[in-house]
Structure formats: C-alpha cells, structure tokens
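Worked example 3. Consider a protein that binds phosphoenolpyruvate.
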Amino acid sequence: MNMTNNLNNKTVNIGSATVGGDKIIIMAGPCTVEDRDQIVDISKFVKEQGAAVIRGGAFKQRTSPHTFRGLGEEGIKYLDGIRRAIGLPVVSEITNPQMVEKYYDMLDCFQVGAKNMQNIDLLVEIGKTNKPVLLKNGHASTYEEFINAAGYIQKEGNNNVILCYRGIRTFETMTRYTFDVSAVPILKRETGLPVIADPSHSAGDSSLVKTLSDAAIIAGADGLLIEVHNKPEAALCDGEQSLNFEEFQLLMESARNTAKAVGRFL
Ligand code: PEP
Ligand code: MN
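Given these inputs, the predicted complex is written out as structure tokens:
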C-alpha cells in the first residue's frame, strides 16, 4: 500500500530511474569529481549499495574564490564515461545557458544549483529541451519563489522537473543550513512534481545525514541526494558532510526500513 506518495501526479524518468513512483530514488556520489579513479570507485560502490543515479559536480559555484572550482568539462567527460561503463544515469550541475546544448548528450539530468535557482536565462534554456532537471532551492528562497523558478522551466514546455530541497539559511549556526521538513509535502502538494531531499547540504555534517534522510522519507520525499566520498577527510569540497562507504551503507539500510514503513521501497 502506498501511503505517502499520493501527492504526486507526475513522475520523471532519468534514464532507467523513475522519480516520483513508489521507489525512493537514491542519487549519490561526491560533491566534486576529483579524478577518474575517485569517481569510478565511488560510483561502483554506491551502485552496489542500491543507488539509482550517480551525482558528481564538475562546475562548482564555490562561495570562496580561493577554493577548488571543479574539473569543469574534464569532470563531465568522466561522468559520461561512468554512465557507459557502469550503466547508471548521471546528473551534474550546469551553470549557464550555453552549457545546455554543449553537455546535452553527456548528462542524463541537469542540476541547477542553489546559487542559480533564479538564473532565469538558464532555466528558460533548459525549459526548451526535454532533459530532466534537478532544481535546487535557493539558500534564502521561499516555497513560492522556488515554485516560480520551476515554472520558468515548465512554461517553455519541459515538465521533467524534479525539485530538490537542500535547506535554507536561518539564524541557526549548529547546522550549515536548516532542513525544513514541511518543504517536502508542501512542494509536492503545490506542484505535483517529484521532490527529493538533500540532507547533506542541509546539515553540513555527516553525522546528521542518516536521520534527516529518514525524516525526509517519512515526509514523502521521492528520493535523496547524498554526498559520498571514498576519503571524506581528503575531499576537495564538502568533506564534512560527505559519508564514507560504511556510513553510506548504514544509511541505505536505514532508508530501506523507513521506506518500507511508509509503503515504499528503494
Ligand atoms: C552541490 O549539490 O554540491 C551544491 C553545491 O549544492 P547547492 O547548490 O545546493 O549549494
Ligand atoms: Mn556539495
């Protein structure tokens, strides 16, 4: 029996993965593709554990100009290699309208990051295609602003939009952002689009990711975006919130039980 998913009226296919059905879709991988061996190792492991989509960043919109900004096109090429070699769809962030055509054939899903939620030209250009898009909420955006950003993509004809809730900036300092669990049912109710949760960026702390994942599933999330690294302590970006292999395995076990408790599976 499906108890939580009755708010969706839309599913979005990313290659072989259907987001918005009874199966909870796990998208996992490193914040940033660092080299070929790293992304291959991590992708193989998360696939073995049941992830349905590989996620890795190549064009990183870092807050500080003095930090690693990703491998750029080289990273996208590694991801393109992964989808062929291990047979899972890949998602990665693109940051300007020119990248839509350029990377169209190399990615199964475009990610629009929090800092670009209101990059209207990018949203419109993606809207002119039928490529699935994972749209993340802005750091300080309201639900309505988030829904309107999705609307820019949909208005052009692309309804393959997945909303990704990644927390918002509040006065709290003990987490990186605040994970407002009510975002999940509200966004689903208001849009009918699949909604996935990103507990990694919300928490900014690997020790909280499993618990927030369970909470998101109970709230009706259609999937999770989880940052995983083979050596989180050496990660070039977002290491504090990245799960090591053992922690990811534990998260998957827990998420499987939680999904079952709400009439879903992963
Ligand atoms: C990311 O997904 O690695 C990322 C940078 O997230 P956000 O755009 O939500 O900050
Ligand atoms: Mn990240």
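Take a moment to read the result before moving on. The mean pLDDT is 96. The two ends are 15 Å apart (CA to CA).
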